[in-house]
């Protein structure tokens, strides 16, 4: 049975371009075995419904490959005999997006040898540098004005860094996205999502002759430029290698677009979750308000029933008093006035009549126990 060796990055690319079920069959594994392989190498896999969303052109979250393991770590797995070389002709979404950017932008991706018609952010730094508003940091790295772009490189590389950032910003703003400064940091904004960006220079570190228990180092600029993005507390960095940083612009921009889309989808999911929680709280609060009203109305009903019974008892009592007095020949004008007064009070207290009283008002009803 033929074996194939893939890097961790290559396997990640395959997982996000081909459903796991198909890959599992090609590699002579069960679905569970293939997913465990991904888990062992910390390779994220698409969530349920991912491929269906793509089929109907709906946004689907792309989970970036964690960087806690090297991307070039090799993984050897077996192929079925009737399956040719897996991965041939397949591309990750990052590859496809990178090709689209190259086709769309063309010469705009070329970082010029000289700064020409710089954008406002670059012009502000250039002017600050000329006004000597500049600060030297560890290793002799230079930053021109802390209010400007987060560029921290040696003086020899400052022009190069400005040309790189100028090219990057012009492409980004041409797509309707934005780059801005806030609190000494620089941000790329896409779909209302902010990603921190910076360009720095790698430092060489040399141990000073010092006490063994307190090591000290000398730092110096290496000449290697690095472009970094910080999103969701993770840092991704591109740097000069066999391929200079200027040639890596398509990779940088395509990764930024994917991260921006991922953060947007994450925010939408979070907002939807918040909306559900808000609606649940609203229903609970409305139910509590209705419950309180029901209790208040029912207490009012019981109080009315009690008042009506008391008013009826009063009338029955007064009728008996009048009947007894007349039967005993003790019915007098004073007693008649008192009975008339008491009957008016009963009518005032009776919720079915609630007649007006010269001295008592509605609020006085609460002074009587029911």
List keywords for this structure.
single chain, 370 residues, alpha+beta, 3 domains, six-stranded mixed sheet, two-stranded antiparallel sheet, 9 helices, 10 strands, elongated
Q: Kindly state the mean pLDDT as a whole number?
A: 85
Largest sheet: 6 strands, mixed
Derived structural class: alpha+beta
Number of domains: 3
| N/C terminus separation | 93 Å
How large is the share of residues in beta strands?
Answer: 15-25%
Number of helices: 9
The ordered H/E elements are EHHHHEHHEEEHEEEEEHH
What low-confidence regions span 5 or more consecutive residues with pLDDT below 50? Answer: 81-90
Portion of residues in helices? 40-55%
Taken from the alpha-carbon principal axes, the silhouette is elongated
Rg, please?
A: 41 Å
What is the number of strand segments?
Answer: 10
What does this structure look like?
By secondary structure, this protein is α+β, with helices and mostly antiparallel strands. It has three domains: 88 residues, no CATH class; 166 residues, no CATH class; 70 residues. Helices cover 46% and strands 18% of the residues. The chain is built from nine helices and ten strands. β3 and β4 form a beta hairpin. α2 crosses α3 and α5 packs across α8. The protein is elongated and about 130 Å long. The relative contact order is 0.08. About 3% of the residues have low confidence.
């Amino acid at each position: 049975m033929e074996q194939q060796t893939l890097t961790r990055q290559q396997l990640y690319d395959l997982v996000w371009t081909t459903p796991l079920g198909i890959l599992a069959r090609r590699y002579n594994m069960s679905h569970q075995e293939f997913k465990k392989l991904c888990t062992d190498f910390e390779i994220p896999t698409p969530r349920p419904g991912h491929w269906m969303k793509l089929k109907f052109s709906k946004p689907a979250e792309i989970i970036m490959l964690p960087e806690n393991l090297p991307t070039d770590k090799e993984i050897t797995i077996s192929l079925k005999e009737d399956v040719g070389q897996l991965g041939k002709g397949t591309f990750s979404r990052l590859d496809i997006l990178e090709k689209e950017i190259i086709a769309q932008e063309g010469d705009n991706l070329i970082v010029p040898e000289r700064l020409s018609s710089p954008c406002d952010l670059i012009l502000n730094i250039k002017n600050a540098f000329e006004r000597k508003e500049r600060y030297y940091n560890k290793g002799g790295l230079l930053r021109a004005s802390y209010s400007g772009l987060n560029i921290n490189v040696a003086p020899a590389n400052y022009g190069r860094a400005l040309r790189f950032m100028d090219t990057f910003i012009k492409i980004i703003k041409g797509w309707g996205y934005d780059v801005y400064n806030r609190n000494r940091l620089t941000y790329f904004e896409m779909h209302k999502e902010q990603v921190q960006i910076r360009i720095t220079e790698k430092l060489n570190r040399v141990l000073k002759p010092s006490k063994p228990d307190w090591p000290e180092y000398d730092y110096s600029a290496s000449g290697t430029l690095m472009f970094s993005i910080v999103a969701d507390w993770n840092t991704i960095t591109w740097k000069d290698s066999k391929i200079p940083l200027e040639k890596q612009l398509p990779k940088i921009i395509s990764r930024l677009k994917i991260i921006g889309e991922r953060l947007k989808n994450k925010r939408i999911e979070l907002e939807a979750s918040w909306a559900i929680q808000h609606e649940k709280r609203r229903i609970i609060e409305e139910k509590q308000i209705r419950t309180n009203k029901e209790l208040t109305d029912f207490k009012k009903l019981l109080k009315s029933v009690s008042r009506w019974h008391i008013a009826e008892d009063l009338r029955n009592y007064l009728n008996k008093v009048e009947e007894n007095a007349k039967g005993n020949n003790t019915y007098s004008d004073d007693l008649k006035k008192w009975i008339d007064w008491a009957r008016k009070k009963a009518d005032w207290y009776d919720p079915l009549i609630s007649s007006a009283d010269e001295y008592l008002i509605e609020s006085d009803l609460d002074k009587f126990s029911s």
